[in-house]
Amino acid sequence: MGAESQTLKAKRSVPQLQKGRGEMRRDHMNRAKEILSNLLNEDSGQDLIEYALIIAAFSFVAIAAEASITPKIQNEFNMITSHF
């Protein structure tokens, strides 16, 4: 890199260093608001979220069913092993 390009980089970064904490915090809050508004207004990922919710519901049902079936299966195996 030449001395000229290093000088340009230094000039660009000076305003960032001169910002106070309040101003930087305000910039971060504005950026967070912008990100949140984009998330609320965009619906491009809506299908993916719906599929994820459906998978979560099926998983919940499967876990609940497994919890209620496990003792019955265990009793059946115990009965089988007691006959041997």
Number of domains: 2
Based on helices, strands and strand pairing, what is the structural class? mainly alpha
β-strand percent reads under 5%
In round numbers, the mean pLDDT is 78
Distance between the termini: 83 Å
- Low-pLDDT ranges: none
What radius of gyration results from the CA coordinates? 30 Å
Shape: elongated
Helix count, per DSSP?
Answer: 3
What level of helicity do the residues show? over 70%
Main β sheet profile: none
Q: How many strand units? A: 0
Polypeptide structure, described:
With 84 residues, this protein is mainly α. The protein folds into 2 domains: 42 residues, no CATH class; 40 residues. Helices cover 88% and strands 0% of the residues. The chain has 3 helices and no strands. The chain is elongated, with a radius of gyration of 30 Å. It starts with a helix and ends with a helix. The mean pLDDT is 78.
Q: What does the secondary structure layout of this molecule look like, with pairings?
A:
Layout: H1 3-18, H2 21-41, H3 46-82
Which keywords apply here?
single chain; mainly alpha; 3 helices; 84 residues
